[in-house]
Amino acid sequence: MNSEQFRAAAHSAIDQIIDYHDNIESRRVVSNVSPGYLKPLLPPGPPANPEPWADIQADIESKILPGITHWQNPNFLAFFPANSSYPGILGELYSATFNSANFNWLCSPAATELETIVLDWLARLLNLPECFLSTSKNGGGGVIQGSASEAVCTVIVAARERYLRALAAAGKSPEESEEIVDNNRSKLVALFSDQTHSSTQKGCQIAGVKHHSIKVTGSATENYVLTGPLLRKSLEELTAKGLHPFFLTVTLGTTATCATDDFASIASVLKDYPNVWVHVDAAFAGAALILPQYQHIPAPFENFDSFDMNMHKWLLTNFDCSCLYVKTRKYLHDALSITPSYLRNPFSEQGMVTDYRDWQIPLGRRFRALKVWFVMRSYGVSGLQGHIWNSLRHGASFAQWVRDRSDIFVIVAPPSFALTVFAVKSESREESNRLTGIVYEAVNADGQIFITSTVIDGIYAIRVVGGGPKIREEVLKRAFDILVRKTEEVLKAGVN
Ligand code: PLP
User: Fold this and answer.
1) How many CA atoms lie less than 13 Å away from 253 in the CB half-sphere?
2) ipTM field
3) Measured in angstroms, how far is the CA atom of residue 283 from the centroid of ligand 1?
4) Distance from the Cα of residue 58 to its chain's centroid
5) For the whole model, what pTM was predicted?
6) Which of 41, 158, 299, 341 has the greatest count of CB atoms below 10 A from its CB?
7) Alpha helices of 42-186 — where are they, by DSSP H?
8) What secondary structure does DSSP assign to 401-431, as a single string?
9) Which atom of ligand 1 is nearest the CA belonging to 150?
10) What separation in Å is there between the alpha carbon of 315 and the centre of ligand 1?
11) Candidate of 152, 156, 310, 314 to mutate for ligand 1, largest count of ligand atoms within 8 Å of Cβ
12) Relative to the CA of 80, which ligand 1 atom is closest?
């Protein structure tokens, strides 16, 4: 494809992308193809000779779109959102254009420097404590990772190294230090509540450390929150067994019910356990911190070691863009920095620059800061706040409609951050679980809206979450009416 062919192809692709976005509501939100649908539609191998773009582009509509679940469709109310925006798409386009690998500053100074700048902008916007800024005296800062899972795995490795190095310092010789590390490595244990996203457990599996899940309880009026006293009990039990608690994930916006752990009481307990690295997983709900009413939440984070939120979930930035902040970047370097001769350069050697390869698992990295910059400038703080505020307003309306139909629905956990978790009302838990399951399956099979379910403490529940920029109150009301209709049908069939 030469430049003139690219110009024509790109114009045509952009037109198709705009049409896709403008008409997305007319598409069935969830793909209903059967597994293996694509293979019979494609030839057994690549074409022997070049094909014109028009033929390739035509296959988007006929072969790919049937297998797409439309996350940008306002009828997508499942999982958590994955916002896309035109400025975000433009950021991806330029990133693909430069296609630099960006592992060291020298690979493209703009990529590194823009990332540091926009992550400091974001930290201020989220009202994170000063210690997470790149300019902080303690040597903190932010880095864009591919996902919240990658971020937590990265900080588990840093925490493990920090803990083991502290133990090793007690050795009187290198051999003794090595022996201490060898004897204790298998005793390291990470903690989290049973509502914490599974990515922390996966990170522990990758890092080869033990993990311990703390059971939390909740109800329609009290969310499933990890508290200081619950944490203390587990810390004492694990320590009594000779284990070394070294890491804790706390969550702002758990996946099932969007609970916010009790950060202040957790921070107070951890004064007695200063070697535990605390990571705040705010993957979805962290975006809400840009609103004034939530800006008090991050104050206790100054006692913690790392914080992560996904701009690619609820903050209008295309996937992937997980923003990880650490209080002391040295600990990432200690765990992850290796400098073979082919990565050496005078700027890095003299410590004049940031090399983000030392803050992450992979070496190469995409120029993701561009889309953050484009999004922040195109929307402005007021536009970003307006988007989050709209989602919260719509979420509150939805929760109220559910409450208003207390004859058929029960709220399972307090509605939080645009998420409502509810079940079909019934005399017994078993019957409620059965009926909720039937309603859930029937609504998704019908395909007008897409929702997810969850099981909390043995309760089978439906999760409805907004957050997409195209969601409007009337779209959510229609979704609610679909849920009511299906529930009434199921209840009627159950009674007869
Ligand atoms: N943490 C929480 C609270 C989540 O809800 C999710 C996913 O929804 C994750 C982590 C994992 O996110 P990612 O897909 O960026 O790894």
Assistant:
1) 25
2) 0.98
3) 5
4) 33
5) 0.96
6) 158
7) 53-59, 86-98, 109-125, 148-168, 174-184
8) HHHHTTTTEEEEEEEETTEEEEEE--SSHHH
9) 16
10) 14
11) 310
12) 8
